[in-house]
Amino acid sequence: MVDPWTHPIQSRRSPIWGSDDRAALHALSIEKLSYEGSGAATYARFTMAPQIAVVGGSEATAPVIAAAEAVGAALASAGAIVICDGLGGVMAAACRGAKSAGGLTVGILPGKDPSAANPWVDVVIATGLGEARNSLVVGSAAVVVALDGKYGTLSEIALALRVGTPVIGIGTWSLSRPDGEVDTGIVPMEDPCAAAAVALNLASAR
Question: Is residue 23 domain-resident?
Answer without folding.
Answer: no
